[in-house]
Amino acid sequence: MKIQRFNKYFLENREYWKLEEIDENGKVKEWIIDTNSIVW
Question: Which of 8, 36, 11, 27 lies closest to 19 in space, CA to CA?
Answer without folding.
Answer: 8
